[in-house]
Design goal:
Shape: elongated
Number of strands: 0
Helix content: over 70%
Number of helices: 9
Distance between the termini: 73 Å
């Protein structure tokens, strides 16, 4: 082989080494990236990080199933694009926590089958009440998730915020997006269904209460937080 040919072959090998990696390699890449800010598997509070990632993964999975149920009913209506946009963000959230589960070797919650079935049923059930019902569900669930995110931020800030800086950035970003979904729900008639259900209880209310209580129960098990998030109008 000529000198030029050998040089080209070495360059090609370097390009292949730097190319896209499979999920397992990507998981290691995430771990290294967090290591750059001082967060490694050896020097973190493993119990706290495991609980945070497990709870958030379950919450985002449940939110995805809720939006899937809503889109199954309302996907072709005028509010369909609004729900789809929020669902797309939830997909990004779930993708990130899937990556963090691999990077930090966290096992998923045992409640995954519950979130799978109950999440879709809740989304579809509230959507059958119309746009206002779906948005009331969004307001309640997103507020509960944001509440847990705030507790997690507080927990990490009490540890070593510099060490957990990148994880804090992820949680804050997702918390802010959940609150945006909450506000979108209020802007799309969520308060209307609240007024109606005060006079005539909605058939979807037991499922909504069960889901938000399950989120709170899981958070209490993991963080021992004291109070259920206050339900806002809608």
């Amino acid at each position: 082989m000529s000198y030029a040919g050998a040089t080209a072959a070495r360059s090609l090998r370097r390009l292949r080494v730097g190319g896209p990696r499979p999920l397992s390699a990507y998981g290691r890449k995430i771990s290294v990236r967090f290591c750059s800010s001082g967060m490694t598997l050896d020097n973190i509070n493993r119990a706290a990080v495991d609980r945070i990632i497990r709870v958030d993964h379950a919450g985002e999975y449940g939110a995805n199933r809720i939006y899937a149920g809503q889109m199954a009913v309302l996907g072709r209506t005028s509010v369909g694009p609004v729900i789809q946009k929020m669902w797309d963000q939830e997909k990004d959230h779930l993708k990130k926590f899937n990556e963090l589960m691999v990077a930090f070797r966290v096992r998923p919650t045992v409640l995954m089958p519950f979130w799978n079935v109950m999440g879709f049923a809740l989304g579809a059930g509230t959507a059958l009440l119309g746009k206002a019902g779906a948005m009331a569900c969004t307001v309640a669930v997103e507020e509960s998730i944001a509440h847990h995110y705030n507790n997690q931020i507080r927990t990490l800030m009490e540890e070593e915020p510099e060490k957990y800086q990148e994880l804090l950035q992820v949680i804050r970003k997702f918390r802010d997006e959940e609150l945006e979904h909450h506000d979108i729900g209020l802007e799309h008639d969520a308060e209307l269904i609240s007024l109606l259900t005060q006079r005539s209880p909605s058939p979807a209310r037991p499922g909504l209460c069960l889901t938000t209580e399950a989120l709170t129960f899981q958070g209490k098990c993991d963080f021992k937080i004291g109070h259920h998030p206050k339900m806002m109008p809608g």
